[in-house]
């Protein structure tokens, strides 16, 4: 039976990924497997027969067996402060050593949390299963900087994902500055796409260049007419002056061409935005792409004024590593 993956997994970025700056602040114990492994972006693996000085090597966070009461916990500093939309507590490969239960709290703190920190419970104590994902939708509009995962009484967690919306305050930004309006650091996100068979669309907005072909957006091979597309909600409304389209690591599977459309969207739903996007004006007419290369377009960009959303079209299919949309924030 295939596990149902909730919408928040693809609609919102993981705020607890190390490349955004997420890190373990503290943990009660990580005797068997260091806590930082719990935040690794790769899916957990099981290596048969691999042992270290403390016992069986496990890809995740694992504490020793508690004999004196209490419970274990870990505090995570999120890479970017934001509104939490959903949590994935993953016990993949932990079978006889997973915690029977867990809870999760969050706070907003400029410094590392201490004994005086006020925590808000987002997930009450709930039972866990071994070798499973545990998904929780969160309905709390507050902005958080840290989460605390509690496991009862001990055991192992393979991965912790904290999906949410980055909170970016335009008032703190220089209105005359030149920004990547499609940066996750500003709150940009991919909101819709027609296909993401080999790589999630959210990867397009990650910081830095792609580390490999899996760190990008790649569609299946198209066997019918048409082209593939993805819609990006900018982190801030702005005027785009330059676009960088990166096909890093995509060699035999990069798109032949790409184009951009854009508009200022004032209201609507994701479904209505998808429909309207077909008729948005062109920001960038179709341009030829090459394999494993960053393509810069400045003179080719049409000045459309302030826009909030951009649709990237790839012809006919393939993979992109990153999309950067550079410009000034609209005052």
Report the strand count. Answer: 22
- Per CATH, which architecture of the largest domain? Sandwich
CATH superfamily of the largest domain, by name, is Galactose-binding domain-like
Within the CATH hierarchy, at the fold level, what is the topology of the largest domain?
A: Jelly Rolls
Q: Determine the N-to-C terminus distance.
A: 51 Å
* Helical stretch tally: 2
Shape assignment: globular
Uncertain runs: none
Number of domains: 2
Q: What is the succession of H and E elements? A: HEEEEEEEEEEEEEEEEEHEEEEE
Oligomer: single chain
What would you say about this model in short?
By secondary structure, the chain is mainly beta.
What does this structure look like?
With 331 residues, the chain is mainly β. Strands 1, 2, 6, 7, 8, 9, 10 and 12 form an 8-stranded antiparallel sheet that branches. It folds into 2 domains: 8-166, Jelly Rolls, CATH 2.60.120; 170-329, Sandwich (Jelly Rolls), CATH 2.60.120.260. It is built from 2 helices and 22 strands. The mean pLDDT is 95. A hairpin with a 2-residue loop joins β3 and β4 (55-56). It has helices at 8-11, 270-277; strands at residues 13-14, 23-27, 51-52, 55-56, 61-62, 72-90, 101-107, 120-127, 133-137, 144-152, 156-157, 159-166, 179-180, 189-193, 217-218, 228-246, 257-263, 282-288, 294-297, 307-315, 319-320, 322-329.
